[in-house]
Design a protein that fits this description.
The protein is α/β, with parallel strands linked by helices. The chain has helices at residues 16-25, 48-55, 75-81, 96-105, 152-165, 182-188, 197-200, 205-215; strands at 3-6, 30-36, 61-67, 85-89, 109-114, 132-136, 170-174, 192-195. Strands 1-8-7-6-5-4-3-2 form an 8-stranded parallel sheet.
């Protein structure tokens, strides 16, 4: 069974409380929160204050994706804001293992993510330190991009490392995922699906989420 994690980048920020409540009631188990610093990626989104505001309106698992340089500096702040999972970029950390250990030490689950062009082999040594692996299926930094099918090679590689380890580690995908291509990513090994506009902009969020489940390969 897949897990759906709507990205709030696509929500109406004028009514963030209502928006996060709406997608949770529609069947979304997770909520994906993309934090961008304008340095690691060429865009700026929001910080812990927005996450804390959303937290008051949702019982969903808060899936916080830090697209920032040296995220180890801010882990405690995002935990206090309400993160349940903190995912950091392999490319943004001088000490990726130390950062992942710090996330777990703060009492939340740790995730690691890679950009589309990063060799997925970098993930294998990190398996003991993570609870989730996120494969970016677009270049990080902006919502609304088109899905990159070539990234499925990284999803398959990550699933292979997880299977070989015998551990229960989620494989998440983020970027251009729709009900039309969710079968491709789940067949490759993903089980946590980030979707923004496909859910928040849908006329009926519950029907949109149902379509993801119906078209999934797992």
């Amino acid at each position: 069974m897949i897990k759906i994690s709507p990205s709030i980048l696509a929500c109406d920020f004028a009514d963030i409380g209502g928006e996060v409540s709406r997608v949770y009631d529609a069947g979304a188990q997770y909520l994906h929160l993309d934090v961008m610093d304008g340095a690691f990626v060429p865009n700026i989104s929001f910080g812990p204050a927005v996450i804390a505001a959303a937290r008051r309106h949702s019982k969903a698992v808060f899936d916080v994706h830090l697209m920032i340089n040296e995220p180890i500096r801010y882990i405690s702040e995002f935990v206090r804001a309400g993160a349940d999972i903190i995912t950091v970029h392999y490319e943004s950390c001088a000490d990726i293992v130390g950062t992942l250990k710090a996330v777990r030490a703060a009492g939340v689950k740790a995730g690691v993510t890679i950009k589309p062009k990063t060799d997925p082999a970098v993930l294998e040594p990190l398996i003991p330190y993570v609870d989730m692996i996120l494969i970016m299926t677009v270049e990080p930094g902006f919502g609304g991009q088109s899905f990159m099918p070539e990234t499925m090679a990284s999803v398959r590689a990550a699933r292979g490392y997880v299977t070989a380890s015998g551990r229960d580690i989620d494989i998440e995908v983020d970027g251009g995922i729709t009900p039309e291509n969710v079968g491709i990513v789940t067949q490759a090994g993903a089980n946590v699906i980030v979707a923004g506009s496909a859910i928040f902009k849908a006329a009926d969020a519950a029907q949109a989420i149902k379509a993801f489940f119906s078209n999934s390969a797992i």
